[in-house]
Fold:
Amino acid sequence: MTGLTEGRPLTGWHVLAMFVGGFGIIIAVNLTLAYNAVRTFPGLEVPNSYVASQSFDARRNAQEALGWRASAEYRDGHLHVTITDRAGQLQRPEDLTVTVGRPTESAEDISPHFDTAQSAALDLAPGLWRVDVLGHATDGTLFEQHLIVSVAK
Structure:
């Protein structure tokens, strides 16, 4: 039992310093994480989610009736976007808009110009990229699809 009484005694000030130091570390980590979460937040998808939800079913049903599917592939420094119908026929919306960015932040978002073959020359860094495809069918139906493309190292 002599090992417990050797050295400096544990006083109230020591206990206070341990509590302040421990909670100080926890608070510093939480503040750092909160700061980085706010700094990298890309923003809201829609200004008012309730209003957007009111027409969601109608928009989804109209898009499903089109039967279009989009796919994206990155190879040889080009992003290729393909939109096909149920029969596998290539579709080319006149107002095709594609936004390319990282899945978790909007800092690197770009809207490249696509040629008539729905291809755009891009220099994408390795990793995951979000490809948002937006366009209208000839009857005015909105087509919207979000894709993930993996770029190898």
Q: What stands out?
A: The mean pLDDT is 89. The chain is about 30% helix and 25% strand.
